[in-house]
Amino acid sequence: MSEEPALNAAPAKPAPEPVDYDIRACAWPPRRGEPREGTVRMIGPEELKTWIVHEDDRLLIISKPGDVVCHPSKAGPWSSLVGAAREYTQLPTVHLVFRLDRETSGIIVLAKDPKMASRLQKAVQERRVTKRYQVIVWGELRDPVTVDQPLGIDLHSPVFVKSAVVRLGDMEAKAAITHFSSEAVANGFSLVRADLETGRKHQIRAHLQWLGHSVVGDKIYGPDSRHYLEFIDHGWTPALEAKLLMDRQALHCAEIGLEPAGLPFTFRAPLPADMTAFAKAKGLL
Q1: Which 8-state DSSP code applies to residue 197?
Q2: Which residues contact 27 (CB under 8 A, 6 or more apart)?
Q3: Which helix or strand (DSSP H or E) is residue 229 part of?
């Protein structure tokens, strides 16, 4: 196996254009009044049971689909993973140890009591929980690479939530390290494994965009973050499908290891059906 180069210096770029704050948009902007019919993904009680990877007295491990929001919403308990888990367990509170973005699939760890939640959240902060992702990207990323680049606010994106590689010392810049290695390469695409040393917001997506290998289907970190604004205004359209190829970012949390935190568990979730179908169609599987 070839040695992984560590990318520590961003390529030289021209001075950024002034920021026009009036055109920037938040992620998943709130809508007035009741949610429109068909815009909220509701979880069925029996459906939730099929997502359970492991359950015991203190833990509930879920393999989340790529169209489910984690945090509670105004649309009721069955409109979010946390709300649905609370209804399923009949507990007053379930604790989300870490979250996945709405369009990211894979392993979610929920704690059933505050003591276990605190233990695992501290372990995450101290990097004693291992996280491995699978992601389909544009371009052929053949060699292993480590990206050691700080992330902060992308002031030059029209989307407020977007992160970008910045310099340490810039506003809210935080160190971020991701290790990438290819599992398959074919026809202008790659199926990539991503191992995290840090857990920054949108870390994998931002680092892959910096590398020039954006995630397939990514509305914010793909070819143009204005695609996200188009999606907010008009929903998923044939025009967006032609540009992005998948209706959600092809990012999947495949494995969470709790052994470094002192628990005898590693939880895994296979590549979901939509990513599997895309990978097969492109010759990656």
Answers
A1: S
A2: 159, 160, 161, 220, 228
A3: helix 226-234
Task: Find, among 81, 2, 79, 93, the residue nearest to 38 by Cα.
Answer: 79
Q: What is the pLDDT of residues 151-171, one digit of tens each?
A: 999 988 888 889 999 998 887
The whole-model pTM stands at: 0.87
Catalytic residue list contains 101: yes
Separation of CA 146 from chain center: 18
Options 22, 56, 101, 170, the catalytic residue: 101
Of 251, 194, 255, which is closest to residue 54 (Cα–Cα)? 255
Contact 251, 205 (CB under 8 A): yes
Cross-strand bridge partners of residue 61: 54, 109
Cβ burial of 9 (10 Å; 0-12, 13-18, 19+) is exposed
CB 120 within 8 A of CB 112: no
